[in-house]
């Protein structure tokens, strides 16, 4: 079967599982507009290179453009958000690493984790504890199965109005790429 079709099938399977978990109260998937606007999980504030749990923000969607306030990342250092597509809901993270912003798909495919803690130069899956490079998205340690699914980067821009924006096509591509082992 072709790689693109396998990725789409994988996305649908993961989405179905995430929505099932969410319906049971155990998952983190949510439809756009129903996620809390500002939910902070336990966060340890520390000096540069510290540990930052993800803060959930609700994005603004205007046609094919998705935006979040840069102020949320400046304050929390690590935010997560969901975007609804025809295929289902996908999760993303934006964090500050060494003074620069990074945006990546936020899913640990085998364990179905969708939230990551930023600790120094690493992203730690809050579900299985697998460690990924915050710079490259590649797996470093933890579950060998989960390490095989690097977190793909999303092309984004920062606006003079204080927003971080990405188009839906780039967001969907990053999420789909993350569902494929070894990509990117």
Topology overview:
Blueprint (H helix, E strand, L loop, with lengths): L2 H21 L14 E3 L10 E2 L2 E3 L2 E3 L2 E5 H7 L1 E8 L2 E10 L2 E6 L10 E4 L2 E4 L5 E3 L5 E3 L2 H4 L9 E2 L4 E5 H11 L6
Parallel strand pairs: 3-6
Antiparallel strand pairs: 1-3, 2-9, 4-5, 5-14, 6-7, 7-8, 9-10, 10-11, 11-12, 13-14
Account of the protein in words:
The radius of gyration is 15 Å and the shape is globular. The protein is of the alpha+beta class and 184 residues long. 37% of the residues are buried. A hairpin with a 5-residue loop joins strand 10 and strand 11 (131-133). It has one domain: Rieske Iron-sulfur Protein (3-layer Sandwich), CATH 2.102.10.10. It contains four helices and 14 strands.
CATH topology: Rieske Iron-sulfur Protein
Chain-averaged pLDDT: 80
- CATH superfamily caption: Rieske [2Fe-2S] iron-sulphur domain
Instruction: Provide the domain count.
Output: 1
Helical content band: 10-25%
Task: Please tell me how large the radius of gyration is.
Answer: 15 Å
Q: Which structural class should the secondary elements be placed in? A: alpha+beta
Oligomeric state as shown? single chain
The best one-word shape is: globular
Instruction: Give start-end ranges of low-pLDDT stretches.
Output: 1-47
* CATH architecture designation: 3-layer Sandwich
Q: Which CATH top level class fits?
A: Mainly Beta
Number of distinct helices: 4
Beta-strand percentage? 25-35%
Q: What spatial order of strands do you see in the largest sheet?
A: 1-3-6-7-8
The N- and C-terminal alpha carbons lie at a distance of 19 Å
């Amino acid at each position: 079967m072709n790689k693109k079709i396998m990725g789409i099938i994988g996305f649908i399977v993961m989405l179905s599982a995430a929505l099932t978990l969410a319906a049971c109260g155990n998952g983190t998937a949510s439809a756009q507009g129903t996620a809390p606007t500002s939910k902070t999980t336990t966060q340890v504030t520390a000096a540069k290179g510290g540990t930052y749990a993800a803060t959930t923000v609700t994005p603004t969607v205007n046609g094919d453009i998705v935006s979040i306030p840069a102020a949320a990342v400046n304050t929390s250092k690590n935010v997560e958000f969901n975007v609804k597509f025809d295929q289902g809901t996908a999760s993303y993270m934006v964090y500050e690493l060494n003074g620069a912003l990074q945006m990546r798909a936020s899913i640990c495919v085998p364990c179905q984790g969708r939230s990551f803690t930023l600790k120094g130069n690493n992203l730690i899956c809050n579900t299985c504890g697998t460690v990924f490079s915050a710079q490259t998205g590649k797996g470093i340690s933890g579950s060998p199965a989960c390490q095989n699914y690097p977190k793909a980067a999303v092309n984004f821009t920062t606006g003079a109005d204080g927003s971080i924006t990405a188009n839906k096509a780039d967001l969907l591509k990053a999420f789909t790429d993350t569902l494929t082992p070894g990509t990117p």
